[in-house]
Amino acid sequence: MQPEFQEFLDNARAFEQQMRDAHTELERTVVTGRSGDGLVTLLASGLGQLKSVLIDPRVFEQHDVDRLQEAIAEAIRAAAGAASRLAEQKMGPVEINLS
Fold this sequence. Notes:
The chain is α+β, with helices and mostly antiparallel strands. Helix content is about 60%, strand content about 15%. A 3-stranded antiparallel beta sheet has the order 1-2-3. Strand 1 (about 30-35) and strand 2 form a beta hairpin. Helix 1 runs antiparallel to helix 3. The radius of gyration is 20 Å and the shape is rod-shaped.
């Protein structure tokens, strides 16, 4: 096998391992998303998989379904943003060296 091709294969294997490691770390990491008023909190994996929903009991005193729905949507967006930033942080430094 030519040395250049072997180097290419070695780099490809190293890249694949980096991606596996990053995926495993994202899978194990928990991110949080909260509504602006703090009444709804979501916990999700770094891959964006929902783990749990926490709702402050005060939300039931308000009897405002629209506000609860908006709080849930805000928490979902916040958790998705946190997962996305974490994935970019973990995957960003990975370089592909094809030379």
